[in-house]
Structure formats: C-alpha cells, structure tokens
Specification:
Distance between the termini: 67 Å
Radius of gyration: 24 Å
Length: about 475
Amino acid sequence: MPAITGQQYIKRIDELQTYISIDGEVVKGNVSEHPAFKGVMQSQAKLFDLQHDENLHDSMTYMSPTTNQRVGMSYLQVTKAEDLVKRRQAAREWALCNHGFMGRSPDYMNTTLMALASAAEYLKDKPNCFPDHLLKFYEYARENDLTMTHTFIEPQVNRHSYQYEDDEVIIAAKIVGKTNEGLVIKGARLLATQGGITDELLVLSTNGIDEEKGFGFSIPSDTKGLKFLCRQSFVGGESTFDYPLSARFEEMDAIVVFDDVVVPWDRVFYYENTEVANRFMNVSGFQAYSLHQVLSRQIAKTEFILGVVQSIVDTINIGGYQHVQQKVVDIIVTLETMKALLLKSEIEAKMDDFGFIRPDLPTLQVAIQIFPKVYPTFTEIIQLLGASGLMSIPSEKAFAADDGDLEHYLQSFRDGGEDRVKKFRLAWDLTMSTFGTRQTLYERYFFGDPVRLSGLLYQTYNRESFMKRVENFLKS
C-alpha cells in the first residue's frame, strides 16, 4: 500500500482494537469515535489527505525506490542537499495544517526511523544486533505509510541514580526471557504521545548500564500484553468555538505497560548490547534529522502565535503602545532567528560516515536551545496583552441564547462581541486551558532536559579555532 488517505488511517487504527485505558476504563469499539481521540485523529487524517492533494502531490510524496509507488516524503533518505529542502517543505505543509500543535505528527517518527535506518551499518557485525531487521522494517513502514508512537525513557522512580530492581519488583521495562518466538519484555516505559492511535510502537533504549534494559524494536500497537494507560484527556469539549485547539489537536500521552510482551525476533533491532544502546542514537543522524523536522514545526507554531498576538493587539487597538510593540517584536525576532537557523543547517549540511547528507547538527542544537526558553514567554505575552479579555469569554451556548447583550457589551474596537470572544477563547485555549499549559510543558522538554542539552552543546561545539586565534593574537 503506498501513501494512504485519512480514511484509510482511521479505518486501520479502529481495526487494531488496541488496549487503551483512560479514566480507569478500557476503550471499546472504534477509538476514532471516543471523545478523547476523535478530534486529533480527524486532524491527523487531514495530514494524510494532503498527500493526495493534486497541488501538493509532488511535494508531499516521492517515488519508492522498491515499488515505484508514491510514498510519504518524511521517509525520504537524504542523498543530496535538495532532499533536505524537499523534507523541509513537506514538514512545513503538515505543520501548517495543525499550526504546529501536533508535536507527534507522523513525520516526526517517520524521520526518526529514516535516520536510524540510514545508520543501520553501525549495527553490522555487533553482538545481538540485526541491521537487516531495521532496514526491513523501515521499508515496510515506508511502503505501508505506518504511523508510530515511541517510548525512549523509563518511569521517574529515582533520578539520582540508575534504577536497580530485583526479579520480583520490575518497574522499568526489561528483558525477562528469550524464546524461539522472540524477546519477552515486562515493565513500563514513558511517554507515548499519541499512544493507542498509531499502527506501531517504536521502543529504543537510549542510555543505561543494565543489559536487560538495552534494546531496540518495533511492534504493532495491538500486540498481546501491550497496554496504553492514558492520562486524563485535555479535550475541553467538541465545540471548536469553546475549545478551538484542544477539540482538534489534543495529543494523548500514555504510560506503556509490557505484560510479558513477546517481541518477534524479526522486529528486534538490537538487544543486550549496552554500547549500542548508549551510542546508536547519537551515532545515527537522529538528532540532526529530527531537529530539522522539529524546527520546521516550531516555526509554523511561532507564526501562528504571532498571528494570535497581533489579532489581540488589533482587536482592542493597543498597537500604539511601545511596550506592546516590544512584546510583538520579541516574537518576530524569535521567528526570524529560527528560520535563519533552519536554512543555515541545510547550507552547512555534510555527508556522514554512512554516505547520507545530514543537516548541520550544531546549528540545530543552538535552535533547540531557543524555543524551550522563549515559548513560556509567548504564553506570558498573550496573558499580559489579553488581560481581562481572557476571562470575559462566554461559551458558544451562551451566544446561541443571547438576546443581544453579549454581542453588544463584548464588542471591541474592531469586532462584534462574538467575533471578539472567538479570538480571546483561542488565546485562552493556547495559554490557560489544560491543553495550553500542557503545550508549554511539552515545548519546555520536547527534546529533553534543557540543562542537559546545554551541557551537550558545550561539550560538542568546536571552539579550538577561536582559541587559536586568541593565542595567535597574543603572540603577534
């Protein structure tokens, strides 16, 4: 099956009948009809439909090298500089469709898998490693346009040290057995965004010293013994007037429980190899390629936020104040900086050890330093500019029953009462609802602990030539 449509996506996920528990109840029937998942699955379906838009067909898909059918652009391996441009343009189209609020749109995980497959050679001839399994799964995912969620981290039990457990007290997922069929996994992992509404779960250990917790594999979401235990839904309601963002883009987060799950051997990429578990993500182009996609999404999101802010400014006519202008300019500066860094990462792209072209990683590491810090200030700017207007936001039902008071008394410099409230409800859902506050936390930690990311940039950024210039200056 080549690039799928939105309806094919929904049908396929409904047919899985994945084990999903939310608010203590197991989801029965079609997950696409459940209030917690309906909106985001419809939004995700629109992404797949873009692949079949006649005006976007060539920018959203490419010809598969094996089947000569159109497949999703986010699976494209980068063999020349123009491929990065194609990937950026496709990522932007999808990001514009959800305004950057779906951090786990399919292209993120497609990019992750593509990056790992492009470095599969690293696994060659290493103990308990199967590069052919990884390449085969990449091709299978590409040709069937699979959706994936992932889990890279262990539950927060003791962040001071690695978690050691005995055989009777298992928390973090580990290998508890090996059979002719495959690895047997028991325990839990975090934090599967979109858990339960994707075809597959990709599981990768990214650090640690315990061989039993060192593995990489992918399994169907409906695998026996696999459970997705969801947090409370942040969908405020189905009304897009009352909840313009959460009704459409609320991505569920789930704890993943492995209850003696058997992972077939042909789905195992590596296991019980701590060197590979600790290094593969860094050796591969995962960071460079995924950050390239992430930055495209964050740019689209920043553009949308700038639009929200300027709409508030114009609606209540506060654009003449210099402190307001400064706040808007702060967002503009961030936007243009991120756009420049994204292009710079492509201009300075280089061939890696495996023969593929990677965007410049240091440039993208700088970019990921910026957004987690500025995004919380965006929400603060909206709150400061919106002020009491963010509280005076009657519901759609209230306007339906209104005899003219709300329309009259909530009018603004530019809009009538209902149109004004629509804009302020959007600003509220973006910054003050449960959905909005989750977005802020999500962007703070999207790619990991910001302090750890700073340390990584400090350790890896090449400063030798600059120090040499100083030495030469002092000697001259």
